[in-house]
Every structure is written in structure tokens, then in C-alpha cells.
Amino acid sequence: MSRDHTPNRMSRFRPQVSNPWESDSRAVTAIRNCLILAEQMGLRTMPKENEQSCAEHLANLPSTKLIEVQKEVSSKTETLYQLQRNIAAHVHDKEAGDFLQVKNIEYRINMITELCSDLDKVMQNTEALVHRLRKPFVGSFIKIDARYHK
């Protein structure tokens, strides 16, 4: 048996909680159980000096690097998506800008006001217009002979 074997003492891997039935995270439960069994069997655990070197080795694993690259790609994809949304908003503003600019709106309002005033004058002078239209045209006109009509 190893000198680190402590079957009667509390395991350092067991959670120190007041409720022993409280469930741990399912992701670490299996690993925790393996460590407890290894400790009960008398296997040595990793010394503190090796934990740091193990962490350095884990940081250099290809899978860890792949996860970091995926995080970078995800963040850049999100940034790209935000930029595309901003570009689409600017394009939309450019398309609708001529309708929403104050100068163009004022110009259209003035044009409609003039048109309304002209139509009001026509409505007020309707009788005079009808009377003039019913009169025959008398004045200078172009003489056209019948021989030119074909």
C-alpha cells in the first residue's frame, strides 16, 4: 500500500456539503467517482508540483487550441453579423433618405399647398369657367380650306 492511502479519512474529492444527497454536476460526477475509487484503492494522486505542468500541457493540446480557435471564429462571426446588420441599416436609410429629409419634405408640402390653392381657385370660379366654355370662340383663328382636309 502507498503512503498516501487514507481509507478512513475524508476524501479530498468528496464535496463538503451539509446535504449528502445534493447532486453534483453530471459532467463531473463520473470523474469525481473515479478519483474517489482511486484514492480508496491506495493509488497516489498527483502532487501539487505536477498540477501546474499538467495544466500547461493541457493548454497546449490541439483540442484546447481548436476550442480557442472556435471561440475566436464565433466572436468574429458575431462581429461580422453586427456589421452586416449595420450595413443593411445604412442601405435602408439611404433608400428612404430622400423621403425623410426635411428639405425634400418641405418642397413636397409647398408643391401640394400650391396645387390645393389652384384647385380652390378653380372651385371658386367654376361658374365663370363654365360660362366661358359655353360661349363660342370668337377671335383670331386660322383659316383652313376644305381642300386641305383628306
From TrEMBL:
Domain of life from the UniProt record: Eukaryota
InterPro entries the record matches: HAUS2 (IPR028346)
Ranges where the record places region Disordered: 1-20
GO cellular component assignments: centrosome; HAUS complex; mitotic spindle microtubule
GO BP terms in the entry: centrosome cycle; microtubule nucleation; spindle assembly
A Pfam family the protein falls into: HAUS2
The protein's name in its UniProt record: AUGMIN subunit 2-like
